[in-house]
Amino acid sequence: MVASTQITPGMTISVGNKLYRVESSVKVTVPKGAPFIKTRLRDLSTSEVVEKNFKLDQSIKDVSFAERLLEYLYLEGKDHLFLDVNTLDQITISAGVIGNKINYLKEGTELKATFYGDSIYTVELPQFLEIMIVKTEGGGGKAPVANATKIAFLETGAKIEVPPFVEVGDIIKVDTKTDEYIQRV
User: What Rg do the C-alpha atoms of the chain give, in angstroms?
Assistant: First the structure.
């Protein structure tokens, strides 16, 4: 528990059985009436931003997340099965939590998962992954063009732009944050 005067942007708090990330926090004093803390909170389950006021020194439950290292195993129905590297427990994560990061998941890929209790709130891929190209399209012109690219389909299902010299079967390094080709490995 923390006092409302200790609320700072970036921290996570629990209000009414919901988790919120604090976007902003300001102490407001008014000529008539008691001062209060005005906050903007982002609901972690819906990403909706709400404004909430707290009395000075009101007790607020602060929340700390635990990070765990997981290894991707395989798709099971609509969910994805992971192995907790430390405890060897199998963990199922819904496609909604993974989002578009699914484009870079292949067997053996390790990622960080943020837990609160038994619930998973986010997953974070390594910034760079090495993935094989299974198909390319375009880039068939004979005249070299500066900054020319073609579309490559990766073994994970992702589609990115690559230089014309990259071929099927090549393993490339991909930036998972920007979806960009980095280099051929």
Answer: 23
